[in-house]
Amino acid sequence: MKKRKTPNLVTIAILTTITVVFWVFFSVYRVFTDEPSFNVPAEILEPVSPTLDTSLIDKIESRIFFSEGEVVTQIQISSPTATPAETPTASPTATPTSSPTPTATATASPSP
């Protein structure tokens, strides 16, 4: 008996359905896993002017004033120092004395 071949339109419909299901699944997944975007105020997003306003810089420099006592000339950073370990002191020890050593004798008594 001859096998019937699936029509091309049915194959395309099945592949399209699978693609749509995956597309929806990944879109929903992305919605749940993406971090929300932050709203940045428009004044921050404005471009910075490339011209240098020297009068503004002069005003800023005139406001900052340090007296002689307020200016730090040298910064000293203290580093940790090791504390000296206690050294044991030598205490006087007893001097060894010579004691008589046992000597061998020529007499021996036989045991019964």
TrEMBL record:
UniProtKB keywords: Membrane, Transmembrane, Transmembrane helix
Superkingdom, natural source: Bacteria
Region feature (Disordered): 76-112
TM segment ranges: 12-32
Bias (Low complexity) ranges: 78-112
Protein name as catalogued: Uncharacterized protein
Organism: Candidatus Woesebacteria bacterium RIFOXYA1_FULL_48_16
